[in-house]
Specification:
CATH superfamily: Ribokinase
Strand order of the largest sheet: 5-4-1-8-9-10-11-12-13-14
Oligomer: single chain
Distance between the termini: 46 Å
Number of domains: 1
Radius of gyration: 19 Å
Number of strands: 14
Shape: globular
CATH architecture: 3-Layer(aba) Sandwich
CATH topology: UDP-N-acetylmuramoyl-L-alanine:D-glutamate ligase
């Protein structure tokens, strides 16, 4: 039986995206168009996998008052999910987008009570995981949950033979690394924050990545927006560069990238093909509004233009504008 991809989204959101001709201070800003999408990094990974016709299951909290609204958004996209009901409301995210400026306002999320967290563990550890199932842990942690939650998930599901995948920032990422996840996918800024270091050269980048690999991480996927992504393992370093696109929104591009990588890697374990496909998916997402996920046809159109390099002299583009 084929392995499944589970995504854990502890701080999901309702994403409101407002489009304006321009954003001005101390005056009326007129909204031209509104999008509403189910948000949360783990949820976005599953949403993209759904577009790729890949089986994936979200484990997420659902708020007491706005849970049904969120549930309807998931069901509209035919997303499979395991809900964990909580008393608080899941957070709302407001994105204001004009051609010249983007403003983002994120609520911190609901306070998770002890009994609600206990419920989460009961549900998670009663899932019939199989060897090589992926557990993707993405995004921020709501109040009431300790920063080592992803580390604990990796530790408690390791006996099933699962492969832990972490896309997080700050202390959450730092703690997760201690439990040797199979894959981590920070962007370059998140990697810098994790090590409290400015990464301005490939040499420094290589030293940090080597340290992570030597401490038990199998695959590093480091993204840097329009400058592409680097895959780093014990045996290989590959840089993939996206083509020029018609940019619309960066929101959810990293999640789409990760979904693309897992989709391809699950099938062929080929690093170059998986990385190029991931970059194509992330690029296709950038051409969509809000957190709308791209179509397979759009990804296929972009894929032939995605380049991959293994020679260090090509990696300088990743660190642009350094």
């Amino acid at each position: 039986m084929s392995s499944l991809i589970y995504t854990v989204s502890l701080n999901c959101s309702i994403d409101f995206t407002f489009y304006l001709k321009n954003i001005v201070e101390e005056d009326v800003n007129r909204i031209e168009k509104i999008r509403v999408d189910p948000g949360g990094k783990g949820v976005n990974v599953t949403r993209m996998l759904k577009k790729l016709n890949e089986n994936s299951l979200v484990i997420t909290f659902l708020g007491k008052n706005n849970g049904n609204f969120y549930k309807n958004l998931l069901e509209k996209e035919k997303i499979n999910f395991i809900p964990i009901e909580i008393d608080g409301d899941i957070r709302k995210i407001y994105n204001f987008i004009s051609p010249e400026k983007v403003l983002r306002f994120n609520e911190k999320g609901p306070e998770i009570k002890k009994n609600e967290l206990k419920n989460f563990w009961n549900i998670l550890l009663n899932i019939n995981f199989k060897k090589n199932d992926f557990i993707v842990m993405s995004g921020s942690i709501p109040p009431g949950i300790k920063k080592n939650i992803y580390a604990e998930i990796i530790k408690k599901t390791r006996n099933y033979g699962t492969l832990g995948v972490v896309d997080a920032d700050g202390d959450v990422l730092r703690e997760a690394i201690k439990e040797r996840p199979f894959i981590i996918k920070p962007n370059l800024k998140e990697l810098e924050r994790c090590f409290n270091a400015k990464i301005e050269s490939f040499e420094k980048f290589k030293n940090i990545c080597s340290y992570l690999i030597n401490n038990g991480v199998s695959i590093l996927l480091i993204t840097n927006g329009k400058y592409g992504a680097i895959l780093f393992t014990k045996e290989k370093i590959i840089y993939s560069r996206p083509p020029e696109i018609q940019f619309k929104s960066s929101i959810g591009c990293g999640d789409a990238f990760l979904a693309g990588f897992l989709y391809k890697f699950k099938r062929n374990r080929n690093y170059i093909e998986s990385l190029k496909f991931a970059v194509a998916v992330g690029s296709a997402k950038a051409e969509e509004e809000g957190t709308k996920m791209p179509s397979v046809s759009k990804i296929k159109k972009i894929l032939p233009s995605v380049k991959a390099y293994t020679k260090p002299e090509s990696f300088k583009y990743f660190f642009n504008p350094f």
